[in-house]
Amino acid sequence: MPTVCIDGYNIALSKGSGIATYGRNLLSNLNAIGMRTQVLYGPHANLSKRPILNQIALTDAYTPQGNRLRQTLESATARFGQTARAVPLTDDVIWPARGGGRPAAEACWSAPRLFNTANRAFKEHQTFTPVTFADHAEVPRPDVAHWTTVLPVHARGAANVYTIHDMIPLRLPHTTLDNKRQFLATCRGIARRADHIAVVSDATRRDVIQLLGVAEDRVTTTWQSVSIPARLRAATDATVATELEGVFKLGWKGYFLYFGAVEPKKNLARIVEAYLASGSDLPLVVVGGRAWLDEDETALMHQVLKRKAGRKRIRLYEFLPFSMLVSLIRGARATVFPSLYEGFGLPVLESMLLGTPVITSTAASLPEVAGDAAIMVDPYDVAALTREIRRLGSDDDLAADLSRRGPAQAAKFSPEICQARLVDLYGRLGVR
Protein backbone atom coordinates (compact mmCIF):
# COMPACT_ATOMS: atom_id res chain seq x y z
CA MET A 1 0.00 0.00 0.00
CA PRO A 2 1.62 3.32 -1.07
CA THR A 3 2.33 5.94 1.58
CA VAL A 4 1.76 9.67 1.09
CA CYS A 5 3.10 12.31 3.45
CA ILE A 6 1.71 15.84 3.33
CA ASP A 7 3.22 18.88 5.01
CA GLY A 8 1.73 20.23 8.23
CA TYR A 9 2.76 23.82 7.53
CA ASN A 10 -0.84 25.14 7.51
CA ILE A 11 -2.51 22.30 9.41
CA ALA A 12 -0.46 23.35 12.45
CA LEU A 13 -2.04 26.83 12.51
CA SER A 14 -4.27 27.32 15.56
CA LYS A 15 -7.02 29.09 13.62
CA GLY A 16 -6.62 27.17 10.40
CA SER A 17 -6.72 28.54 6.88
CA GLY A 18 -8.14 27.61 3.49
CA ILE A 19 -4.98 25.62 2.82
CA ALA A 20 -5.30 23.90 6.20
CA THR A 21 -8.80 22.84 5.17
CA TYR A 22 -7.39 21.62 1.88
CA GLY A 23 -4.75 19.58 3.70
CA ARG A 24 -7.25 17.90 6.01
CA ASN A 25 -9.58 17.10 3.12
CA LEU A 26 -6.61 15.78 1.14
CA LEU A 27 -5.83 13.36 3.96
CA SER A 28 -9.44 12.16 4.02
CA ASN A 29 -9.46 11.64 0.27
CA LEU A 30 -6.11 9.83 0.31
CA ASN A 31 -7.39 7.52 3.03
CA ALA A 32 -10.49 6.84 0.94
CA ILE A 33 -8.46 5.72 -2.09
CA GLY A 34 -6.40 3.32 -0.01
CA MET A 35 -3.22 5.29 0.62
CA ARG A 36 -1.37 5.26 3.92
CA THR A 37 -1.15 8.83 5.16
CA GLN A 38 1.35 10.83 7.18
CA VAL A 39 1.98 14.47 8.10
CA LEU A 40 5.36 16.20 8.30
CA TYR A 41 5.61 18.94 10.94
CA GLY A 42 8.29 21.53 11.57
CA PRO A 43 7.82 22.30 15.29
CA HIS A 44 9.85 24.83 17.26
CA ALA A 45 11.17 22.28 19.77
CA ASN A 46 14.10 19.98 19.15
CA LEU A 47 13.51 16.25 19.06
CA SER A 48 13.57 14.53 22.43
CA LYS A 49 14.37 11.03 23.60
CA ARG A 50 11.01 11.09 25.35
CA PRO A 51 8.29 10.16 22.80
CA ILE A 52 5.56 12.14 24.55
CA LEU A 53 7.54 15.39 24.22
CA ASN A 54 7.81 14.84 20.47
CA GLN A 55 4.03 14.47 20.27
CA ILE A 56 3.51 17.56 22.42
CA ALA A 57 5.79 19.61 20.16
CA LEU A 58 3.45 19.08 17.19
CA THR A 59 0.65 21.10 18.83
CA ASP A 60 2.44 23.10 21.52
CA ALA A 61 1.15 26.67 21.87
CA TYR A 62 4.43 27.78 23.46
CA THR A 63 6.83 29.45 21.04
CA PRO A 64 10.37 29.93 22.35
CA GLN A 65 12.24 33.11 21.54
CA GLY A 66 14.24 32.79 18.34
CA ASN A 67 17.98 32.32 18.55
CA ARG A 68 19.54 34.46 15.80
CA LEU A 69 22.86 32.64 15.78
CA ARG A 70 21.11 29.30 15.43
CA GLN A 71 18.81 30.67 12.72
CA THR A 72 21.78 31.97 10.73
CA LEU A 73 23.57 28.63 11.01
CA GLU A 74 20.46 26.63 10.09
CA SER A 75 19.78 28.84 7.05
CA ALA A 76 23.37 28.56 5.84
CA THR A 77 23.38 24.77 6.12
CA ALA A 78 19.81 24.13 4.92
CA ARG A 79 21.01 23.22 1.42
CA PHE A 80 22.60 20.08 2.89
CA GLY A 81 19.22 18.97 4.16
CA GLN A 82 17.28 18.13 7.29
CA THR A 83 16.28 14.79 8.71
CA ALA A 84 12.67 14.05 9.61
CA ARG A 85 12.11 11.49 12.33
CA ALA A 86 8.93 9.53 12.89
CA VAL A 87 6.58 10.46 15.71
CA PRO A 88 4.16 7.57 16.29
CA LEU A 89 0.83 8.88 17.54
CA THR A 90 -0.87 7.76 20.75
CA ASP A 91 -3.89 8.95 22.72
CA ASP A 92 -1.71 10.49 25.42
CA VAL A 93 -1.88 13.99 23.90
CA ILE A 94 -5.21 15.73 23.27
CA TRP A 95 -5.16 17.74 20.05
CA PRO A 96 -6.85 21.18 19.86
CA ALA A 97 -10.39 20.97 18.52
CA ARG A 98 -10.27 24.56 17.20
CA GLY A 99 -7.48 23.66 14.78
CA GLY A 100 -9.41 20.66 13.50
CA GLY A 101 -8.19 18.08 15.97
CA ARG A 102 -5.75 15.30 15.31
CA PRO A 103 -5.25 14.88 11.56
CA ALA A 104 -6.56 11.74 9.90
CA ALA A 105 -3.10 10.27 9.39
CA GLU A 106 -1.44 7.06 10.54
CA ALA A 107 1.74 8.76 11.71
CA CYS A 108 3.61 12.02 11.84
CA TRP A 109 7.17 13.11 11.15
CA SER A 110 9.05 15.91 12.84
CA ALA A 111 11.85 18.05 11.43
CA PRO A 112 12.38 20.91 13.92
CA ARG A 113 11.90 24.39 12.44
CA LEU A 114 11.88 22.92 8.92
CA PHE A 115 9.50 25.34 7.24
CA ASN A 116 10.76 28.50 8.91
CA THR A 117 14.33 27.51 8.10
CA ALA A 118 13.51 26.57 4.51
CA ASN A 119 11.73 29.86 3.83
CA ARG A 120 14.55 31.84 5.39
CA ALA A 121 17.23 29.83 3.53
CA PHE A 122 15.52 30.40 0.22
CA LYS A 123 15.20 34.13 0.88
CA GLU A 124 18.86 34.45 1.85
CA HIS A 125 20.55 31.82 -0.34
CA GLN A 126 17.97 30.87 -3.03
CA THR A 127 18.23 27.19 -2.10
CA PHE A 128 15.60 24.53 -1.59
CA THR A 129 15.87 22.48 1.60
CA PRO A 130 15.97 18.70 1.03
CA VAL A 131 14.34 16.43 3.61
CA THR A 132 15.44 12.88 4.37
CA PHE A 133 13.00 10.58 6.15
CA ALA A 134 14.87 8.48 8.68
CA ASP A 135 14.33 4.74 8.94
CA HIS A 136 11.85 3.64 11.58
CA ALA A 137 10.79 0.14 12.53
CA GLU A 138 7.05 0.92 12.58
CA VAL A 139 6.62 3.93 10.27
CA PRO A 140 7.38 3.49 6.56
CA ARG A 141 9.10 6.24 4.63
CA PRO A 142 6.69 7.91 2.19
CA ASP A 143 6.47 7.04 -1.49
CA VAL A 144 5.08 10.50 -2.22
CA ALA A 145 5.63 13.85 -0.50
CA HIS A 146 2.63 16.03 -1.31
CA TRP A 147 3.35 19.67 -0.43
CA THR A 148 0.04 21.48 0.04
CA THR A 149 1.36 24.95 -0.71
CA VAL A 150 4.31 26.76 -2.30
CA LEU A 151 7.29 25.74 -0.16
CA PRO A 152 11.04 25.67 -1.00
CA VAL A 153 11.34 22.10 0.26
CA HIS A 154 11.67 18.72 -1.44
CA ALA A 155 11.83 15.14 -0.20
CA ARG A 156 14.68 12.77 -0.95
CA GLY A 157 13.74 9.26 -1.99
CA ALA A 158 10.11 10.09 -2.77
CA ALA A 159 8.07 11.55 -5.61
CA ASN A 160 7.37 15.24 -5.00
CA VAL A 161 3.92 16.66 -5.77
CA TYR A 162 3.21 20.34 -5.12
CA THR A 163 -0.23 21.94 -4.94
CA ILE A 164 -0.32 25.50 -6.24
CA HIS A 165 -3.59 27.09 -5.19
CA ASP A 166 -3.28 30.33 -7.11
CA MET A 167 -0.88 32.80 -8.70
CA ILE A 168 -2.50 35.84 -7.08
CA PRO A 169 0.81 37.42 -5.94
CA LEU A 170 1.70 37.69 -9.63
CA ARG A 171 -1.75 38.32 -11.12
CA LEU A 172 -2.94 40.82 -8.48
CA PRO A 173 0.30 41.97 -6.81
CA HIS A 174 -1.42 44.92 -5.10
CA THR A 175 -3.52 42.52 -3.01
CA THR A 176 -0.75 40.66 -1.18
CA LEU A 177 2.34 41.40 0.91
CA ASP A 178 4.33 38.52 -0.57
CA ASN A 179 7.82 39.23 -1.83
CA LYS A 180 6.93 38.81 -5.49
CA ARG A 181 10.46 38.02 -6.66
CA GLN A 182 10.77 35.35 -3.99
CA PHE A 183 7.34 33.92 -4.76
CA LEU A 184 8.11 33.70 -8.48
CA ALA A 185 11.52 32.18 -7.82
CA THR A 186 10.01 29.58 -5.49
CA CYS A 187 7.34 28.70 -8.05
CA ARG A 188 9.96 28.37 -10.76
CA GLY A 189 12.01 26.14 -8.49
CA ILE A 190 8.94 23.98 -7.97
CA ALA A 191 8.29 23.90 -11.71
CA ARG A 192 11.80 22.52 -12.25
CA ARG A 193 11.81 20.01 -9.38
CA ALA A 194 8.25 18.75 -9.13
CA ASP A 195 7.38 15.29 -10.34
CA HIS A 196 3.91 16.70 -10.79
CA ILE A 197 1.92 19.85 -9.94
CA ALA A 198 -1.63 19.74 -8.61
CA VAL A 199 -3.96 22.72 -8.91
CA VAL A 200 -7.43 23.29 -7.52
CA SER A 201 -9.08 24.82 -10.59
CA ASP A 202 -8.67 25.09 -14.34
CA ALA A 203 -8.20 28.84 -13.87
CA THR A 204 -5.11 28.22 -11.73
CA ARG A 205 -3.94 25.55 -14.19
CA ARG A 206 -3.98 28.12 -17.00
CA ASP A 207 -2.06 30.59 -14.83
CA VAL A 208 0.59 28.01 -13.88
CA ILE A 209 1.11 26.92 -17.47
CA GLN A 210 1.25 30.50 -18.77
CA LEU A 211 3.27 32.19 -16.04
CA LEU A 212 5.67 29.35 -15.18
CA GLY A 213 5.98 27.73 -18.58
CA VAL A 214 5.06 24.28 -17.25
CA ALA A 215 4.09 21.61 -19.79
CA GLU A 216 0.37 20.85 -19.75
CA ASP A 217 0.89 17.16 -18.98
CA ARG A 218 2.67 18.04 -15.73
CA VAL A 219 -0.30 19.92 -14.21
CA THR A 220 -3.48 18.19 -13.00
CA THR A 221 -6.64 19.86 -11.74
CA THR A 222 -7.84 17.95 -8.70
CA TRP A 223 -10.53 20.46 -7.63
CA GLN A 224 -11.41 20.78 -3.97
CA SER A 225 -14.07 19.12 -1.88
CA VAL A 226 -15.53 20.01 1.47
CA SER A 227 -16.47 17.78 4.33
CA ILE A 228 -19.22 18.96 6.64
CA PRO A 229 -19.85 16.57 9.54
CA ALA A 230 -23.10 14.63 9.24
CA ARG A 231 -24.23 15.77 12.69
CA LEU A 232 -24.17 19.40 11.53
CA ARG A 233 -26.00 18.71 8.29
CA ALA A 234 -28.54 16.53 10.10
CA ALA A 235 -29.66 19.32 12.46
CA THR A 236 -33.18 20.42 11.56
CA ASP A 237 -33.90 23.90 10.24
CA ALA A 238 -35.86 24.59 13.41
CA THR A 239 -32.89 23.64 15.58
CA VAL A 240 -30.55 25.87 13.61
CA ALA A 241 -33.07 28.72 13.66
CA THR A 242 -33.30 28.48 17.45
CA GLU A 243 -29.51 28.57 17.72
CA LEU A 244 -29.23 31.61 15.46
CA GLU A 245 -31.86 33.49 17.43
CA GLY A 246 -30.35 32.57 20.79
CA VAL A 247 -26.70 33.23 19.93
CA PHE A 248 -26.85 36.00 17.33
CA LYS A 249 -30.41 37.42 17.53
CA LEU A 250 -30.76 36.63 13.84
CA GLY A 251 -33.84 35.31 12.07
CA TRP A 252 -33.92 32.29 9.77
CA LYS A 253 -33.07 33.44 6.22
CA GLY A 254 -33.08 36.96 7.62
CA TYR A 255 -29.55 38.20 6.82
CA PHE A 256 -26.82 38.28 4.20
CA LEU A 257 -23.50 36.63 4.98
CA TYR A 258 -19.87 37.13 4.07
CA PHE A 259 -17.26 34.77 5.51
CA GLY A 260 -13.58 34.53 4.76
CA ALA A 261 -10.36 36.40 5.43
CA VAL A 262 -10.43 40.20 5.37
CA GLU A 263 -7.92 41.07 2.66
CA PRO A 264 -8.08 43.07 -0.59
CA LYS A 265 -8.93 40.26 -3.02
CA LYS A 266 -12.06 39.39 -1.02
CA ASN A 267 -13.65 42.70 -2.06
CA LEU A 268 -15.26 43.40 1.30
CA ALA A 269 -15.28 47.18 0.82
CA ARG A 270 -17.47 46.86 -2.28
CA ILE A 271 -19.69 44.31 -0.53
CA VAL A 272 -20.36 46.77 2.28
CA GLU A 273 -20.90 49.68 -0.13
CA ALA A 274 -23.32 47.67 -2.28
CA TYR A 275 -25.18 46.34 0.73
CA LEU A 276 -25.68 49.81 2.20
CA ALA A 277 -26.75 51.20 -1.18
CA SER A 278 -29.28 48.38 -1.58
CA GLY A 279 -31.32 49.68 1.34
CA SER A 280 -31.96 46.12 2.45
CA ASP A 281 -33.53 45.74 5.87
CA LEU A 282 -31.79 42.40 6.30
CA PRO A 283 -28.53 42.75 8.27
CA LEU A 284 -25.14 41.91 6.78
CA VAL A 285 -23.13 39.44 8.86
CA VAL A 286 -19.36 39.51 8.31
CA VAL A 287 -17.28 36.63 9.67
CA GLY A 288 -13.61 37.16 8.97
CA GLY A 289 -10.33 37.62 10.72
CA ARG A 290 -8.08 40.51 9.73
CA ALA A 291 -5.37 39.32 7.38
CA TRP A 292 -3.36 41.98 5.53
CA LEU A 293 -3.91 45.33 3.82
CA ASP A 294 -7.34 45.39 5.39
CA GLU A 295 -7.56 49.11 6.21
CA ASP A 296 -9.23 50.18 2.97
CA GLU A 297 -11.44 47.10 2.98
CA THR A 298 -12.86 47.80 6.43
CA ALA A 299 -12.88 51.62 6.60
CA LEU A 300 -16.52 52.09 5.56
CA MET A 301 -17.70 49.16 7.67
CA HIS A 302 -16.04 50.53 10.81
CA GLN A 303 -17.54 53.95 10.18
CA VAL A 304 -20.98 52.31 10.09
CA LEU A 305 -20.25 50.27 13.22
CA LYS A 306 -19.51 53.44 15.19
CA ARG A 307 -23.22 54.26 15.09
CA LYS A 308 -25.79 52.36 17.12
CA ALA A 309 -28.08 52.10 14.09
CA GLY A 310 -25.18 50.86 12.03
CA ARG A 311 -24.50 48.01 14.45
CA LYS A 312 -28.00 46.74 13.72
CA ARG A 313 -27.25 46.66 9.99
CA ILE A 314 -23.77 45.11 10.07
CA ARG A 315 -22.59 42.41 12.47
CA LEU A 316 -18.86 41.67 12.62
CA TYR A 317 -17.32 38.51 14.05
CA GLU A 318 -13.59 37.87 13.66
CA PHE A 319 -13.59 34.15 14.31
CA LEU A 320 -16.22 31.51 15.05
CA PRO A 321 -16.08 27.74 15.60
CA PHE A 322 -16.80 25.77 12.43
CA SER A 323 -20.05 24.35 13.81
CA MET A 324 -21.39 27.85 14.42
CA LEU A 325 -20.26 29.02 10.98
CA VAL A 326 -22.16 26.12 9.40
CA SER A 327 -25.30 27.26 11.21
CA LEU A 328 -24.79 30.83 9.97
CA ILE A 329 -24.38 29.59 6.39
CA ARG A 330 -27.50 27.45 6.60
CA GLY A 331 -29.60 30.26 8.02
CA ALA A 332 -28.48 33.01 5.61
CA ARG A 333 -30.66 34.50 2.91
CA ALA A 334 -27.53 34.40 0.76
CA THR A 335 -23.75 34.28 0.90
CA VAL A 336 -22.18 37.31 -0.78
CA PHE A 337 -18.73 36.44 -2.14
CA PRO A 338 -17.81 38.58 -5.20
CA SER A 339 -14.05 38.06 -4.87
CA LEU A 340 -11.62 39.78 -7.23
CA TYR A 341 -9.72 36.53 -7.77
CA GLU A 342 -9.72 33.04 -6.28
CA GLY A 343 -7.79 29.87 -6.83
CA PHE A 344 -10.98 28.00 -6.01
CA GLY A 345 -13.49 29.65 -3.66
CA LEU A 346 -14.46 27.30 -0.83
CA PRO A 347 -17.15 29.62 0.63
CA VAL A 348 -19.09 29.32 -2.62
CA LEU A 349 -18.93 25.52 -2.57
CA GLU A 350 -19.74 25.28 1.15
CA SER A 351 -22.76 27.56 0.76
CA MET A 352 -24.13 25.70 -2.27
CA LEU A 353 -23.64 22.36 -0.53
CA LEU A 354 -25.78 23.62 2.35
CA GLY A 355 -28.47 24.98 0.02
CA THR A 356 -27.74 28.66 0.62
CA PRO A 357 -28.04 31.02 -2.40
CA VAL A 358 -24.81 32.66 -3.52
CA ILE A 359 -23.86 35.95 -5.13
CA THR A 360 -20.35 35.62 -6.50
CA SER A 361 -18.13 37.09 -9.22
CA THR A 362 -17.19 36.42 -12.81
CA ALA A 363 -13.47 36.35 -11.98
CA ALA A 364 -10.94 33.50 -12.17
CA SER A 365 -12.18 30.15 -10.84
CA LEU A 366 -15.50 31.28 -9.41
CA PRO A 367 -17.58 30.60 -12.55
CA GLU A 368 -16.16 27.06 -12.56
CA VAL A 369 -17.29 26.47 -9.01
CA ALA A 370 -20.64 28.25 -9.19
CA GLY A 371 -21.79 26.99 -12.59
CA ASP A 372 -25.40 28.03 -13.19
CA ALA A 373 -26.30 27.76 -9.52
CA ALA A 374 -25.35 31.28 -8.39
CA ILE A 375 -25.76 34.91 -9.33
CA MET A 376 -22.55 36.24 -10.85
CA VAL A 377 -21.49 39.87 -11.18
CA ASP A 378 -18.44 41.81 -12.26
CA PRO A 379 -16.61 42.17 -8.92
CA TYR A 380 -15.72 45.80 -9.66
CA ASP A 381 -19.31 46.81 -10.52
CA VAL A 382 -20.83 48.07 -7.26
CA ALA A 383 -24.09 49.05 -8.96
CA ALA A 384 -24.59 45.53 -10.31
CA LEU A 385 -23.84 44.01 -6.93
CA THR A 386 -26.30 46.44 -5.32
CA ARG A 387 -29.05 45.38 -7.74
CA GLU A 388 -28.47 41.68 -7.07
CA ILE A 389 -28.49 42.08 -3.28
CA ARG A 390 -31.74 44.01 -3.55
CA ARG A 391 -33.24 41.46 -5.98
CA LEU A 392 -32.29 38.39 -4.00
CA GLY A 393 -33.44 39.99 -0.78
CA SER A 394 -36.97 40.42 -2.11
CA ASP A 395 -37.46 37.60 -4.65
CA ASP A 396 -38.44 34.44 -2.78
CA ASP A 397 -38.79 32.41 -5.96
CA LEU A 398 -35.24 33.30 -7.04
CA ALA A 399 -33.89 32.38 -3.62
CA ALA A 400 -35.73 29.05 -3.68
CA ASP A 401 -34.47 28.27 -7.19
CA LEU A 402 -30.85 28.92 -6.21
CA SER A 403 -31.30 26.83 -3.08
CA ARG A 404 -32.37 23.90 -5.27
CA ARG A 405 -29.58 24.37 -7.81
CA GLY A 406 -26.78 24.72 -5.26
CA PRO A 407 -26.48 21.16 -3.95
CA ALA A 408 -26.57 19.72 -7.48
CA GLN A 409 -23.71 22.00 -8.54
CA ALA A 410 -21.78 21.24 -5.35
CA ALA A 411 -22.04 17.53 -6.13
CA LYS A 412 -19.71 18.11 -9.10
CA PHE A 413 -16.97 18.68 -6.52
CA SER A 414 -17.76 15.72 -4.31
CA PRO A 415 -15.02 13.88 -2.42
CA GLU A 416 -15.47 10.94 -4.81
CA ILE A 417 -14.68 13.12 -7.82
CA CYS A 418 -11.62 14.58 -6.12
CA GLN A 419 -10.51 11.07 -5.19
CA ALA A 420 -10.73 9.95 -8.81
CA ARG A 421 -8.57 12.90 -9.82
CA LEU A 422 -5.99 12.01 -7.18
CA VAL A 423 -5.91 8.40 -8.40
CA ASP A 424 -5.19 9.71 -11.90
CA LEU A 425 -2.50 12.11 -10.66
CA TYR A 426 -0.64 9.49 -8.60
CA GLY A 427 -1.10 6.94 -11.35
CA ARG A 428 0.96 9.17 -13.63
CA LEU A 429 3.79 8.78 -11.14
CA GLY A 430 3.41 5.01 -11.02
CA VAL A 431 1.92 5.13 -7.52
CA ARG A 432 -1.14 2.92 -7.23
Textual characterization of the structure:
With 432 residues, this protein is α/β, with parallel strands linked by helices. The protein is 43% helix and 16% strand. It contains 18 helices and 16 strands. The protein has helices spanning 18-32, 51-59, 68-77, 114-125, 168-171, 180-193, 202-212, 230-234, 237-248, 268-278, 295-305, 308-313, 322-331, 346-353, 366-370, 382-394, 396-410, 415-428; strands at residues 3-7, 36-41, 82-88, 107-110, 129-133, 144-147, 153-155, 159-164, 196-199, 219-221, 256-259, 284-287, 314-317, 334-337, 358-361, 375-377. It has a ten-stranded mixed sheet with strand order 7-5-3-4-2-1-6-8-9-10. A six-stranded parallel sheet has the order 13-12-11-14-15-16, with helices on both faces. α10 links the parallel β11 and β12. The longest helix is centred in the N-terminal third of the chain and has 15 residues, at 18-32. The mean pLDDT is 93.
Descriptors for this entry?
single chain; 432 residues; alpha/beta; six-stranded parallel β-sheet
